[in-house]
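Please review this pair:
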Amino acid sequence: MNWLAEDVEASLAIVIGEAELGMLARAVVVAEILDDDGERTLTVLGTPGLADWDALGMCRYGAASIEASAAADFLTGGDE
């Protein structure tokens, strides 16, 4: 599945570059995949060479960021 991670990395680098957000350094993508049989799987792809502990740290940081945003919305009555 390394080819998929490489393709995702290349696609992200293009999108981030075109949005003028900077240069992609590393990425973790969590995606729900629906296959031809209707089966769903959760797939985690990291950019090639990304160590597992770095991917884990990035995922935990992302989860904490989402939780903080959701908590703030809950407290202020904001939309989801």
The helical segments are 2-18, 52-76. Strands lie at 28-34, 40-46. The chain has a mean pLDDT of 91. The first strand starts at residue 28 and ends at 34.
